[in-house]
Design brief:
Number of strands: 18
Bound molecules: heme C
Structural class: alpha+beta
Oligomer: single chain
Number of domains: 2
Number of helices: 15
Length: about 450
């Protein structure tokens, strides 16, 4: 009995030691916010900031658009909460600060979100908001073009791009051209591990593209302009949309959800061009080969971008004969709604599958998470790049097929998360994830002798 107790204690000590070593090894890939200059150096109180409702009365249009945006979703986001919790489990709650600099800058910098699990309802309302009005409009400087490297200065001064703001009783207004720049967004939108691995780098992608040269900024595409009053009763001005439409849609009950899906669909359908090239005829019983060419000619960064390891963008191919029978297909879903790659729960594999989803890998080649990643395989399509995907299949073998028409239906499809990821995270109840068809086209071939 005594021996067994001793053995148990030994095992516990050994396990803790192994856990400690592995944490020590893996931990270095997390950017520790304590080491990130100027993000944590100025502690605030959550009460130094105003919640969005304070702004709503005078800025109802901005409030309405923001309330349905992914910025308002960033702490309530079930995928963020779930992945953060997995990390917490592996890092004995030490991961915490690494997930909040951008998703809840006020929560982190006020110490409201600390090194432990939290219940959303226990947080200060301004931390629950994620990226609210004040988290953005009290930014005074960019200190690093990644990892939440911006200075927050809570005060009565709200910065923006109106040069001659009309005074009001609640706050001072200050013109700041930083707010029209891509760098402003880049400080939050790029996530580089402390080993220097560019993991989520929409800003770096933009900077390397022709869009940076022509001066087309993030806001030109993501904050559409319109004419209206900047506050209730104000004069008409050129204003900027605050719904920040991208590729993602809310997966929980959320304001303006149907409108968001419509706008995201339009955004994705205006991101890329696609053509099919191949001969117009094929001999019966021979191999027919064709290319699908996907060109990123409209987007200021890679597609997909942001969190490219979560996003799925794939080609669905269906070839039918004159009797509507399927002769060849790729990019179809299994009974779990997953693509038929190595993550499918079924045995069938889709050898022709084209899926632009990135994969995070550990040094030994196994799958990694954000906190232990060593390399990223990222097949996303760069601005200006054309991805050529080749397919080939055997045409019908019997002579009776001569004269028949085959129709190739090609669809480029997108969803913001793979269903298997949601199932792994215990988010099954939120499935299915909406699939958006970005581009589609058909190509016909006739079967000859
Ligand atoms: C009492 C009404 C009122 C409230 C409350 C209010 N604002 Fe304003 N705000 C104004 C007015 C008036 C302007 C000037 C608009 C104009 O000139 O057309 C303005 C302008 C702005 C600008 C543009 C500044 C510039 O120079 O570009 C920002 C940004 C802003 N407000 C943010 C906020 C935020 C954030 C809140 C909540 C914390 C808020 N406002 C609350 C009335 C208000
Ligand atoms: C020329 C227009 C254009 C510019 C410039 C542009 N974007 Fe985009 N952005 C798009 C389009 C179209 C999509 C949808 C396709 C996609 O997901 O990449 C998108 C998607 C996104 C997404 C979601 C990506 C995903 O796949 O999950 C983010 C985040 C984003 N943009 C941020 C930015 C930031 C930050 C900048 C500036 C550094 C920027 N964008 C510049 C057009 C643009
Ligand atoms: C993700 C950051 C972000 C958030 C969150 C945000 N804004 Fe803005 N806002 C901006 C930027 C950037 C501009 C200037 C855009 C430009 O000039 O290209 C702006 C402009 C404005 C303006 C000036 C008028 C206009 O439309 O250009 C007002 C007023 C304003 N915001 C109010 C608000 C209010 C109120 C909220 C919360 C309900 C809010 N903003 C949330 C980034 C943000
Ligand atoms: C304080 C950090 C922060 C700043 C500043 C910021 N963003 Fe974001 N943004 C985020 C986070 C975090 C998300 C994702 C939240 C989520 O889905 O959980 C996001 C989401 C988005 C999305 C939606 C992406 C999708 O997949 O649909 C777009 C578009 C976007 N931001 C554009 C911008 C632009 C343009 C700017 C500059 C005006 C900007 N953001 C400034 C942190 C920030
Ligand atoms: C450098 C700032 C930053 C840090 C640090 C950060 N994120 Fe994000 N995160 C973002 C931005 C920006 C987006 C939006 C990208 C997009 O939508 O394409 C995002 C998107 C996400 C998404 C996808 C949300 C959706 O609804 O599709 C998840 C999940 C997520 N982050 C989890 C985490 C976790 C977990 C951590 C900590 C390990 C973390 N993030 C740390 C900036 C950050």
């Amino acid at each position: 009995m005594k021996n067994r107790k001793f053995l148990t204690i030994c095992i516990i000590i050994l396990c803790s030691y192994i856990l400690l070593i592995s944490c020590e090894r893996d931990k270095k890939t997390i950017v520790d916010p304590e080491e990130t200059p100027d993000t944590l150096s100025v502690p605030f109180l959550a009460s130094d900031f105003s919640v969005a409702e304070t702004c709503q009365g005078c800025h109802p249009q901005h409030y309405d658009e923001w309330s349905g945006s992914m910025h308002a979703y960033s702490v309530k986001d079930p995928s963020w909460l779930a992945i953060r919790e997995v990390g917490q489990g592996q890092y004995i709650n030490a991961l915490d600060g690494a997930c909040s600099p951008c998703h809840s800058p006020i929560g982190l910098r006020s110490g409201d979100i600390t090194w432990g699990p939290f219940e959303i309802d226990d947080l200060d309302p301004v931390s629950q908001e994620g990226i609210g009005c004040d988290a953005c409009h009290t930014i005074t400087a960019i200190t690093r073009l990644s990892n939440g490297g911006f200075e927050l200065a809570p005060s009565d001064v709200k910065h923006g791009t109106i040069k001659d703001p009309i005074p009001n009783s609640f706050h001072e207004s200050k013109y700041n051209d930083l707010y029209a720049s891509s760098e402003y967004c880049g400080s939050c939108h790029d996530f580089v591990t402390d080993d220097g691995l560019p993991l989520e780098v929409v800003f770096q992608e933009w900077r390397a593209s022709g869009f940076a040269l022509t001066g087309k900024t993030c806001n030109d595409c993501h904050m559409e302009t319109y004419i209206g009053p900047a506050f209730v009763g104000g004069p008409d001005r050129t204003l900027h949309r605050h719904d920040f439409i991208g590729a993602d849609v809310a997966m929980i009950d959320f304001p303006n959800k149907p409108e968001q899906l419509v706008k995201v669909t339009a955004m994705l359908q205006n991101a890329l061009s696609m053509t099919v090239t191949g001969p117009n005829s094929a001999q019966f019983g021979q191999t027919y080969s064709f290319d699908v060419n996907i060109t990123n000619d409209k987007t200021g960064h890679n597609v997909p971008s942001g969190v490219p390891f979560n996003r799925q963008m794939w080609l669905s191919i269906i070839v039918r004969n004159s009797n509507d029978e399927i002769v060849f297909s790729s990019g179809q879903l299994d009974a779990n709604d997953d693509l038929m790659d190595r993550y499918s729960g079924f045995l069938e594999r889709d050898t022709f599958l084209f899926n632009a989803q990135a994969t995070m890998l550990k040094a030994d080649g196994s799958d990694a998470s954000v906190w232990d990643v060593d390399s990223l395989v990222n097949p996303s399509i760069k601005p200006g790049e054309t991805k050529v995907v080749n397919y080939s299949f055997a045409t019908p073998e019997f002579a009776g097929a001569v004269g028949e028409e085959l129709t190739i239906e090609v669809t480029l499809r997108f969803r913001s998360f793979a269903p298997y990821l949601f199932r792994e995270l215990g988010l099954d109840s939120l499935l299915p994830i909406p699939i958006i068809d970005m581009n589609s086209t058909t190509h016909s071939i006739s079967i000859t002798l």
